[in-house]
């Protein structure tokens, strides 16, 4: 059975930006999740495109490692490759209402 993108996205919510204390999904840092074809063992390779709040984000390596680890915790995921992209540039408009409330952005 194919792994649902939503299940991976839910697992990614455990990755918290250490400067903003908001998860990377609610911050809008996850741009694309691509689930590869199902393998014989029922598992999938996954590719994730994500961005950072700024090109010089000091937490970048930590967030990438956390994203890979969280995706690979999903039972149906064999491996995950994370690609950091800077286009389109991240803006606060990508955040969920919950993230904006947490950060006091109205």
Task: Give your account of this protein's structure.
With 106 residues, the chain is of the alpha+beta class. The protein has a single domain (5-88), classed as Fe-S cluster assembly (FSCA) (GMP Synthetase, Chain A, domain 3), CATH 3.30.300.130. It has 3 helices and 3 strands. A 3-stranded mixed sheet has the order 1-2-3, covered by helices on one side. α2 links the parallel β2 (44-50) and β3. The longest helix has 13 residues, at 60-72. The mean pLDDT is 94.
Task: Outline the secondary-structure elements.
Elements lengths: L4 H8 L17 E6 L8 E7 L9 H13 L4 E8 L12 H7 L3
Parallel strand pairs: 2-3
Antiparallel strand pairs: 1-2
Helix pairs in contact: 1-2
């Amino acid at each position: 059975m194919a792994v649902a993108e939503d299940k991976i996205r839910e697992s990614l919510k455990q990755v918290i930006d250490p400067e903003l204390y908001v998860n990377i999904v609610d911050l809008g840092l996850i741009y694309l999740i691509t689930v590869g074809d199902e393998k014989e063992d029922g598992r999938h390779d996954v590719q994730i495109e994500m961005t950072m709040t700024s090109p010089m984000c000091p937490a970048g390596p930590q967030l990438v490692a956390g994203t890979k680890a969280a995706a690979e915790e999903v039972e149906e995921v064999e491996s995950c490759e994370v690609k950091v992209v800077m286009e389109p540039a991240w803006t606060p408009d990508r955040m969920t209402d919950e993230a904006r409330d947490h950060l006091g952005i109205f």
